[in-house]
Design brief:
265 residues, mainly alpha, 11 helices, 0% strand
């Protein structure tokens, strides 16, 4: 190998130095904005209590015959995720066709659709959940509405990109045969997009499971509600068993949904 190719030019060294200096300045700026006042006096005691709680979880909370327990909380979370995903997967379909550039004759129609989807995606689901809690009251219904509305933005974007990427060959063949737009949609478009739509919906369900666990922290139902109560009362053993339950639920969901997506695609 020619040694001259291994020798870096002066401009490369200058560029590397400028990038390194820029990164150092960014880190310095970021850390300078953080106000650090040291650890609290009780930090060691609280940390030891948390560790002890995770080593000795409250197994009795898994099932309570006459009260809210871990299994009921996880079941509520699963129900909120399923309903929110189904609502969003159905409602986002018209938005996806609206935002797809190849489904309209001019971009004047598709561009506003893309802008609407971007606006829906701007707000985090926890903000949407708080808005619905104010509108319909706390509980699982607010969580379902929050996940359903918030997921429309992301799912419709993925769906529209799928529609824009379809093979135009079958569509052009049907146009040449004199098919109308409904027949083109039925026989040339839908068969190509259904597998991707199902795969994206299942993937969104995985995300909604994680989101549903946090929405309960603001009163939108699910396992997050007993979790915030346990945190407020510093019941670390109960916090530990709830988090263990969430880990098992999310892991099982990932395994099952991953298997389903492989079967579909």
């Amino acid at each position: 190998m020619n040694t001259t190719t291994l020798k870096k030019s002066p401009w490369s060294r200058i560029r590397f130095s400028l990038i390194a200096l820029a990164l150092i300045l960014i880190y310095w700026w970021a850390f300078s904005g953080i106000r650090f006042e040291g650890f609290q006096e009780m930090a060691k005691t609280v940390s030891a209590a948390i560790l002890n709680g995770f080593l000795h979880p409250d197994w009795s909370y898994i099932y309570l015959p006459d009260g809210e327990d871990l299994l009921r909380g996880l079941l509520d979370t699963l129900s909120i995720s399923i309903l929110g995903t189904v609502i969003s997967a159905v409602l986002c379909i018209p938005f996806a066709f609206w935002a797809s550039a190849n489904m309209s004759r001019t971009r004047v129609i598709s561009v506003p659709g893309k802008i609407v989807l971007s606006i829906i995606r701007v707000f985090p689901e926890i903000i949407v959940a708080i808005l619905f809690i104010k509108a319909v009251g706390p509980g699982a219904f607010a969580g379902v509405l929050a996940l359903g509305i918030h997921s429309i933005g992301m799912l419709a974007k993925l769906f529209s990109e799928t529609i824009e990427g379809i093979d135009r060959g079958p569509e052009e063949a049907m146009i040449a045969c004199g098919a109308n737009r409904l027949q083109i949609l039925r026989y040339a478009v839908i068969p190509q997009i259904v597998p991707a739509f199902l795969s994206y919906s299942i993937y969104r369900f995985e995300i909604n499971i994680r989101s549903a666990t946090t929405l309960g922290l603001v009163g939108a139902g699910g396992i997050g509600t007993p979790l915030i109560f346990a945190l407020d009362s510093r019941n670390w053993s109960r916090v530990a068993i709830i988090l263990y339950g969430i880990i098992i639920l999310v892991t099982l969901t990932d395994l099952i949904s991953g298997w389903l997506r492989k079967k579909i695609i």
